[in-house]
Write a structure and sequence with these properties.
Distance between the termini: 23 Å
Helix content: 55-70%
Number of strands: 0
Structural class: mainly alpha
Number of domains: 2
Radius of gyration: 28 Å
Length: 126
Amino acid sequence: MAVFDGETTEFAPEQLNAHLSACESCRREIEQMQNTFALLKTQERSVPETDLWSAIETRIEAETRTNWKPFAFLGVFLVGYKLLEMLPETGFGFAFKIVPLVFVVALFAFLKENPFRINTELILEK
């Protein structure tokens, strides 16, 4: 990597070239890096908006405001459920044990929130 970045290394260029001519694995890796760098250089660089930071702050604030509510409600429910568990045996059996799972699934389905959402906005074009 240092060779691609223009940094100096502890090895002379002649030593690196001698190693690459003898080592197929390193030569393949260097070729793959060169191909990757060539592909990255062909990508268009987007120019950020003039008010980019304010747009980012707005999105962060909007996400922060909405994402904590389902988890707070879930926390209150689970604490209440654990307190009910401490009561003497009521004979609900299996139904009492499955209630939290059903409730959590219903909560996220109702709120249409996905706590494991992955951002897929980054797209590389060839």
